[in-house]
Amino acid sequence: MTNYSNLSLERHNITLPERSSVQKQVILESPSLMYLTCKFTASGNLTSVCVTWKRGDEPLKNFSHTVEGNSTVRTQYNFTIVNSKQLGNYSCVFEDRKEQRGTFTIQVPEVKGKKKPLITYVGDSTVLVCKCEKCVGPSHWTWYRSNGSVQVPIDANMSAKYVISGAHNNETKLKLMNLLEEDGGSYWCRAVFPLGESEDQQELVVLSFLVPLKPFFAIIAEAVLLVAIILLFEVYTQKRKKHPDDGKEFEQIEQLKSDDSNGLENNAPRQRKK
Question: Hey, where are the domains in the chain?
């Protein structure tokens, strides 16, 4: 049986002015004793203020509330959080003419990687980095690679392609060597805390060396085509200059043929009269 006698105590407070709602983020790594306190300041009759606590939309019991002075209602909810199922939103709700709500959002620390895709080339090596800035350090880190809709764990001991460092620090690195185009895709880093898990996704793009040259090749092809068209036009122009009478001679030959045809047609009837 798990012993929770040595849990740390976490105290968090929210003060609600009249006609307002407040939200506060609470970051936890380990199981803890939670003391959540809300104070509501009102100008009207405090005896008409209804106080409740909710986790999400589910009402909670075993909370306390008192009236302090002539304008403040104080309420407190105490509990022990021991697993990830208890993470989420805990709200103190004050209902009078209007509802005022103070919400404590309890979660494990966020981990963050590079948001923009990391672009590299075939044969290179690269490093993916994940950090947990607001934490002491996870129990351990795990790296995954997406295979369709499935996350496949990366075991650095089973492949010389991968090297994982910082397994128990607040930063972890995944080094990938001798990259191939098929190594591109989605990679996930997951931090495991005693109270839950947190993960982030990174994109790796592996390009062939020919990819950056494609625009250059396209420009060269267009230039070669343009030069070829210019050369053909120059050759055609030079031929026209060297043989300027070719067209006239062709027209004279066609005219002679036409005259011969007309002469034959005119002689044919005369021969019949003889």
Answer: 8-107, 118-207
Measured between alpha carbons, how far is residue 86 from residues 32, 55, 82, 105, 177 in Å?
11, 9, 7, 11, 41
Q: Exposure pattern of 170-190 as b/e (b: 16+ CB <10 Å)?
A: bebbbebeebeeebbeebbbb
Residue in this structure with the two tokens 């075939």, named with its chain if needed: 122
Mind listing the pLDDT tens digit for each residue in 57-81? 999 999 998 888 777 889 999 999 9
pLDDT, tens only, 127-151: 999 999 878 888 889 999 998 888 8
Band of residue 243 on the pLDDT scale cut at 50, 70, 90: low
Tell me if residue 102 falls in helix, strand or coil: strand
Cα(58)–Cα(91) distance, integer angstroms: 10
* Structure tokens, 10: 């976490």
First to last CA, the chain: 141
Give the pLDDT confidence score for residue 229 in this predicted structure. 81
**Three state DSSP letters for 29-77:** CCCEEEEEEEEEECCCCHHHCEEEEEECCEEECCCEEEEECCCEEEEEE
The amino acid at residue 54 is K
Q: Is 83 helix (H, G, I), strand (E, B) or coil?
A: coil
Q: Are 133 and 112 in contact (CB under 8 A)?
A: yes
Instruction: Give me the CATH topology for the region 8-107.
Output: Immunoglobulin-like (2.60.40)
Q: What is the DSSP letter of 117?
A: P
Q: Which two tokens stand for residue 249?
A: 């001679």
Q: Is the pLDDT of residue 88 over 80?
A: yes
Domain spanning 118-207: CATH 2.60.120.10:
no
